[in-house]
Every structure is written in structure tokens, then in C-alpha cells.
Amino acid sequence: MAEKKEKKKKLTVPEEELMYSGHLACQGCGATIAMRYALKALGPKTSFAIPACCWSVIDGPFPYTSLGIPIFHTAFETAAVMASGLKAGFDIMGKTDVTSVAWGGDGGTTDIGIQALSGAAERNDDILYICYDNEAYMNTGVQRSSQTPWGAWTTTTPARHFKKLPKKNMVDIMAAHGIPYIATSAMAFPEDIVKKVSKAKDIKGCKYVQILASCPPGWKMVPEKSIEVIRLAVNTRIWPMLEIEEGVYNITRKPRKEIPVADYLKLQGRFRHLTEDQVNEIQEIVNFNWQRLRWLEESTQEMKEKYGRATLSVPAG
Amino acid sequence: MSDEVEIRGVRDMPAMAMSLGLMTYNKTGSWRNMTPVLDPEKCNGCMLCWKFCPDVCVSADDPPVIDYDYCKGCGVCANECPVDAIEMIEGATPPSGRAEAPEPAATP
Ligand SMILES: Cc1ncc(C[n+]2csc(CCOP(=O)(O)OP(=O)(O)O)c2C)c(N)n1
Ligand code: SF4
Ligand code: SF4
Ligand code: SF4
Ligand SMILES: [Mg+2]
Q: Which CATH number covers residue B64?
């Protein structure tokens, strides 16, 4: 026993925690893992603006918190503008070393909060926007959002009328703003979250990171598969891991084996109603998106080589 | 910050809505209906259970120790463990002898 204790710990991510036990998330909540690793990358000199979403509840009721950093709870549609305002305030106070982060769900980010986020991106305000994407409005009981994927059940897209629109391409919307850094990550890959969030933290201007995070009750799945399902999302390529720097696309994880998307879908009750043909249709969406990204990666990298840039980037505001 | 905050009336409230304490007062172990039991003899020290616990209640020691005051029994650690060193057992009580209940977590 004694010699076992002396064995070197295999930690591939920082040990310091800024998220504590006692929080109110459901068993196996993916959004908590996303938060835990984002905070490990950001460190204590960070302020958060959190709009209405599961995380405004997970943190705990007044006067308690589960996080070791200050949070400003904001209205549903205002996370980005609140982060911009906080950043301006910190600058005036001379606290230029504080990272101002907006942390919102997919509904608050890609639907109702998109105007505030687009404004911050257009001004290239020096903020980091992190969206934890659980593909529906979970806090209010699983309503569909623009990030709900094709085929999924939600309470507003019941199985017989499941969602027949693809996930809105938020990454390309953000890329169209010409901001310096955009990335996607997934909560089953802590090292990837730490790497991308650390990188975003050190870049001046508006940064956007979208982290796929499972939600056992909303995805109708058992909590113990919470990590496994996200690993499959990445390995089946339904959720590509990306970085877009100054308009140049880079797929950061290219799974060598081709795993059918059905393996990902079958872990989740929200896809249980799908027929074989419909599963094939999802596979086609996945294949098309992947081809398109490979093409974007090639062409934007070529453009950068030829013309020195791949987007009209704006100076940091 | 302290673990427990007592607010008896308006006078005890701060001038603005701000956090006064940590949620660590909230012993979420009572949510549990399955209990993970870690076998230190089987454990290879990979730390995946520490890494993926959504409730930050697996210690970064080798072998790790599960804090049953907070463990919600989600089963993620048992599912991720590559050598099946964690077994999920029925009920909320960890069997004594195999894994001991640690001291309540100190306030960070
Ligand atoms: C203006 C406004 N409309 C509706 C709500 C109710 N509401 C609170 S959280 C939420 C869902 C948030 O979904 P998302 O942003 O995806 O975060 P999640 O709950 O999934 O973590 C809704 C609709 C609100 N707080 N404010
Ligand atoms: S509903 Fe989903 S996202 Fe919200 S706390 Fe529960 S598991 Fe997490
Ligand atoms: S069962 Fe879940 S909450 Fe309990 S120690 Fe394992 S991962 Fe953590
Ligand atoms: S995941 Fe399993 S083998 Fe790895 S440290 Fe935890 S108990 Fe040990
Ligand atoms: Mg959501």
C-alpha cells in the first residue's frame, strides 16, 4: 500500500480546482465537466457573466456559489454585452489582467443572445465567449434550440414530429465576423478544453469557444455514459473539433477509424424513434459536413499561404 | 469564505447580491441511490475517475479516495475506469472496510 501511494500521479491537466462539490447539477451533468476544465485553464483572475441557463442554477442559490471566481448573473439575452461592460470596467479600474468571460447555454448563446454576441464580435471586444452546448433549452425542460440536431426529440419536437432542421452552423456565423479565434471542443476531452481555452485567453479581441456537453435527462440517457457519449460524438465526426484562427480552419482531431454515427445515436433515447433510413440521413449530414470542413481547411490554408490572410480581421476593440 | 451562512433578517444581508458562502455546505451525497466502491488493489492510478467526476468528489491521490459526502452516484467513474476497479453497488451506504468514508471536505 505504502509504495503504491508514492506512485507518480498521472495528471494531464492542472490539479487546482475552481469548481467545488455541493453544486446543484443533475447526476452526470456534462456542463459541469466543461466548466471544471474551462476554469482550470482560466485561473482565478477571471470574471464570468452567466445568462439564464442551467449553470445559473447549478452554481447554487443566493447567498452561495460553487465557483471560486466572481459571477455576474445576467438576463437571458445579455451575456456578451455584460462581459464587454465588465471588461471596460476592469480596464478603467486598471485591472487589465482580468479575463472577462461570458458563459452561456446554446439557447442563450445561439438564439436569444446572438444579437449581443454579434455586437461584441463586430466591435471585437476583448472578451471570451464560451457556449456549453447541450443542444436544447434544458433548464426549462428540454425545448428545441437552433443547436438541437436533425432527428432529435425534445418536448417541442416530440418523436412523431422530431426536429427536421439541421443544427445551425454557429461556428461559421462567428467566423463571418472576422474575429481572431474560434474553436469547438467537447467535454470528454479535458486536455483539449484546457488547451483551447488557454489559447483563447491569451489572444486579444473577441474569442468564441463552443463545448459540446451531454445532458443525461435531456438526451434521455443513463448518467454513467455521459463522457462516453461525447467521446463518440467526436469519434463519429458528428461533432468536429475545430479551430479557426484569423479565418484559417483547422480540424484538430481527425479520427482515423470511420465509426458509424448510429453508435452515437443509439446511446440516447432522444433518437430512439428514428428509422434506419433516418439514421442514414444523419450519416449523410455528418459525411457532408466533414467533407465541407476538409475543403474549408484546405482552401483557407491555401488562401493564407497565397494572400497572407483568409479573412478581413478587425483590430481588437 | 465560510461553509454555512446564517441570514436571520434584512440586517444580515449585504448591500448588493453577492455570494457569501460555498455550496460545499450542501452534502449532495444524500442524492445517491447507487454507490461507487473503489478497489485500491485493482487501481492502476490512471486518474480518469478524478478527471471525469462531475461532482469533484474523487481525490487526486493515488489511489483516489471517493468523498461520499458529495458523490451523487452517477456512475461515470465506474464507467470510465479502464481496469474495472470501481464497482457500483445498490444503495447509498458504502460498505465499511472496503472504502472508508473520509472526513467532511474542508472549506477551500
Ligand atoms: C427573456 C427570457 N426568456 C425565457 C427565460 C426562461 N429560461 C431560463 S433558462 C432557459 C433555457 C436556457 O437554455 P440554454 O441557454 O440552452 O441553457 P441550458 O438550460 O440548456 O443549460 C429559458 C428558456 C428567461 N429566463 N428569460
Ligand atoms: S438538465 Fe442537463 S445541463 Fe441541466 S443540470 Fe441537468 S444534466 Fe446538466
Ligand atoms: S459516482 Fe459520479 S459523483 Fe460519485 S464519485 Fe463517481 S463520478 Fe463522482
Ligand atoms: S479510473 Fe480506475 S484505475 Fe484509474 S485511478 Fe480511478 S480507480 Fe484507479
Ligand atoms: Mg442548452
A: 3.30.70.20
